[in-house]
Design goal:
- By secondary structure, the chain is of the alpha+beta class.
- The protein is 33% helix and 25% strand.
- It is built from three helices and five strands, in the order E-E-E-E-E-H-H-H.
- It has helices at residues 52-60, 63-68, 74-87; strands at 7-9, 16-18, 22-27, 33-36, 44-49.
- The strands form two sheets. The protein has a three-stranded antiparallel sheet.
């Protein structure tokens, strides 16, 4: 039997991709939002493609706000983009 590949939807472009191809954005129990590079931390996760384009789209269409059911301040997006650039 073939092993099932976990698929996730990008909150930026809406494309479905395998979990390995995506980057996880995490909302911790404390309400902090951060990049989860291991993909294993506890908390609510939302997924983004590995592209700055999708980060911009997610910001514009409020994809992360919808996933986490909360308002996300501009400085959080700024911090995410910095983490993202460092990761790339």
């Amino acid at each position: 039997m073939a092993k099932k590949i976990p698929m996730r939807q990008c909150v930026g472009c809406g494309e479905m991709k395998s979990k390995k191809e995506m980057m996880r954005v995490l909302k911790t129990a404390e309400g902090d939002i951060t990049l989860d590079l291991t993909g294993r931390k506890n908390g609510r996760g939302a997924y983004l493609c590995h592209s700055a384009e999708c980060m911009k789209k997610a910001r514009k269409n409020k994809g992360l706000e919808r996933s986490f059911k909360m308002n996300i301040p501009e400085e959080v997006y700024g911090k995410l983009e910095k983490e993202f650039d460092a990761y790339e």
